[in-house]
């Protein structure tokens, strides 16, 4: 009887395996595949980019997974990563519960949409953000306003918590273009929103949660899977954006378009009779979510990392300060026009972004047609997850990628040299929409802060760690810095 039970159990497991986890023909090799859940137990929820390096050594440049019934390709060698990011058939976004949770279960916004919808929304968003100053002198003025607030605040403190400190400043720049306003530094409501956003980024995973593999779990075990907490944070942010949009509706005037939300509402009205329109209130909410999230999380973390390496490498900090004193002086703030004469600063910031890129793993892509990669068959609708880290840390290319060495970006005459493998913001059609703003904000904040202050490790504190916190994007581990004004205002 026992043997019969065991035999029946084996048959059931085999049938489940065959039914739910059939690997496509000529699919790339990869971790084991179990019934129903596939390779999910063998996929790490944190530091995926480090694990991808191990997979590359074991399986090759492309690794095949089955997350439930969903085929997933992990791309972990430079040649194949660049191919995936640039070929047209790899440019869509995945269709699953995790990637649709914050977009009302539809393709909305500029981040998780694709196809003709994405093209129209991205063009509209970029065009009108530029009209309101995105990438122009107005944006520089907005950034400088935020910098002045930070400088005044830091002059009144001896020591501060660096991690997450710049979230408000980063948000205010993009929010002025989106909604025509800025938040005060002690705004409790905004701090709560930033906290929700941070929790989303820190708890998320590039491969998604178990809910993607077994969707019914979000109904029967929402708290255990973390689904309910995720919904709570997303709902809080969506409710905030909906309220701001309603405020704009109540004060909207076609003769006085104040910001991006106003022009989006105008476009919604103009296309109200078009049943194929891509413009809707929910679409505007998601677009605000996309841009708000990028500013609050990625840019602020880059700023924190730039101060982290200034503290860890005081000789670099002093060299930057000496250069600023020589080029800019102390009677005015640095500006974007100073960039050509601050080549070493560009090298320092490039090295910060190389070691701690915005996202070590690119946002997931989806295949739009049957194709091939590295000699393997890639079926339509396969999810593609590509490592940016494999380019930024490649030993053959960089020589000593583990070391912080800004000079690697300078030629013999001290001029900044752009490297084609520096794809911190992605490459191809899906390059980050906010790259220009991020680079400008990082440059202006970093140069002004180092012109005005010297940052050191507080007495009695250990040296800050460089290993980033786990999550969808990189973030520094909490650390504090002592602030010493370099001269009287």
Automatic annotation (TrEMBL):
<keyword id="KW-0408">Iron</keyword>
<keyword id="KW-0503">Monooxygenase</keyword>
<keyword id="KW-0560">Oxidoreductase</keyword>
<keyword id="KW-0349">Heme</keyword>
<dbReference type="InterPro" id="IPR036396">
    <property type="entry name" value="Cyt_P450_sf"/>
</dbReference>
<dbReference type="Pfam" id="PF00067">
    <property type="entry name" value="p450"/>
</dbReference>
<protein>
    <submittedName>
        <fullName>Uncharacterized protein</fullName>
    </submittedName>
</protein>
<dbReference type="GO" id="GO:0016712">
    <property type="term" value="F:oxidoreductase activity, acting on paired donors, with incorporation or reduction of molecular oxygen, reduced flavin or flavoprotein as one donor, and incorporation of one atom of oxygen"/>
</dbReference>
<dbReference type="InterPro" id="IPR002401">
    <property type="entry name" value="Cyt_P450_E_grp-I"/>
</dbReference>
<dbReference type="InterPro" id="IPR050182">
    <property type="entry name" value="Cytochrome_P450_fam2"/>
</dbReference>
<dbReference type="InterPro" id="IPR001128">
    <property type="entry name" value="Cyt_P450"/>
</dbReference>
<comment type="similarity">
    <text>Belongs to the cytochrome P450 family.</text>
</comment>
<dbReference type="GO" id="GO:0006082">
    <property type="term" value="P:organic acid metabolic process"/>
</dbReference>
<dbReference type="GO" id="GO:0005506">
    <property type="term" value="F:iron ion binding"/>
</dbReference>
<dbReference type="InterPro" id="IPR017972">
    <property type="entry name" value="Cyt_P450_CS"/>
</dbReference>
<dbReference type="GO" id="GO:0020037">
    <property type="term" value="F:heme binding"/>
</dbReference>
<dbReference type="GO" id="GO:0008395">
    <property type="term" value="F:steroid hydroxylase activity"/>
</dbReference>
<feature type="binding site" description="axial binding residue">
    <location>
        <position position="432"/>
    </location>
    <ligand>
        <name>heme</name>
    </ligand>
</feature>
<dbReference type="GO" id="GO:0006805">
    <property type="term" value="P:xenobiotic metabolic process"/>
</dbReference>
<dbReference type="GO" id="GO:0005737">
    <property type="term" value="C:cytoplasm"/>
</dbReference>
<keyword id="KW-0479">Metal-binding</keyword>
């Amino acid at each position: 009887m026992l043997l019969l039970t065991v035999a029946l159990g084996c048959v059931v497991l085999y049938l489940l395996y065959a039914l739910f986890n059939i690997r496509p023909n000529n699919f790339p090799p990869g971790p084991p595949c179990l019934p129903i859940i596939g390779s999910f137990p063998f996929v790490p929820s944190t530091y995926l980019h480090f694990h991808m390096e191990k997979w590359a050594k074991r399986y090759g440049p492309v690794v095949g997974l089955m997350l439930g019934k969903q085929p997933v390709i992990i791309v972990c060698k430079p040649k194949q990563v660049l191919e995936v990011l640039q070929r047209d058939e790899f440019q869509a976004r995945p269709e699953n519960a995790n990637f649709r949770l914050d977009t009302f279960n539809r393709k909305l916004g500029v981040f998780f949409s694709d196809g003709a919808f994405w093209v129209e929304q991205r063009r509209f968003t970029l065009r009108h953000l530029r009209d309101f100053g995105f990438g122009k002198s107005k944006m520089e003025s907005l950034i400088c306003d935020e910098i002045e607030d930070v400088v005044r605040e830091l002059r009144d403190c001896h020591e501060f918590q660096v991690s997450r400190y710049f979230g408000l400043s980063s948000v205010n720049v993009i929010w002025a273009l989106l909604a025509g306003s800025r938040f005060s530094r002690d705004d409790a409501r905004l701090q709560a929103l930033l906290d929700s956003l941070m929790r989303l980024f820190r708890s998320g995973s590039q491969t998604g949660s178990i809910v993607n593999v077994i969707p019914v779990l979000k109904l029967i075990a929402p708290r255990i899977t973390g689904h309910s907490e995720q919904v709570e944070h997303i709902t809080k942010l969506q409710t905030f954006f909906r309220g701001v949009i309603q405020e704009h509706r109540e004060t909207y005037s076609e003769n006085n378009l104040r910001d991006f939300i106003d022009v989006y509402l105008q476009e919604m009205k103009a296309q109200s009779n078009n049943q194929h329109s891509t413009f809707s209130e929910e679409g505007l909410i998601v677009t605000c979510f996309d841009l708000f999230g990028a500013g609050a999380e990625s840019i602020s973390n880059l700023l924190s990392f730039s101060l982290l390496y200034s503290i860890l490498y005081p000789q670099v900090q002093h060299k930057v300060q000496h250069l600023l004193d020589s080029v800019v002086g102390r009677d005015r703030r640095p500006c974007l026009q100073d960039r050509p004469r601050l080549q070493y600063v560009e090298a320092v910031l490039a090295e910060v972004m190389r070691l701690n890129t915005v996202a070590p793993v690119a946002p997931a892509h989806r295949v739009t047609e049957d194709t091939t990669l590295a000699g393997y068959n890639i079926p339509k609708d396969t999810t593609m997850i590509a490592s940016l880290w494999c380019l930024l840390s490649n030993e053959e290319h960089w020589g000593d990628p583990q070391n912080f060495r800004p000079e690697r970006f300078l030629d013999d005459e001290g001029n900044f040299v752009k490297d084609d493998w520096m794809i911190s913001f992605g490459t191809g059609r899906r390059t980050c929409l906010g790259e220009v703003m991020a680079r400008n904000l990082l440059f202006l904040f970093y140069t002004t802060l180092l012109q005005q202050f010297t940052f050191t490790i507080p007495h009695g504190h250990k040296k800050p760690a460089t290993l980033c916190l786990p999550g969808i994007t990189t973030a520094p581990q909490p650390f504090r810095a002592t602030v010493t004004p370099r001269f009287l205002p």
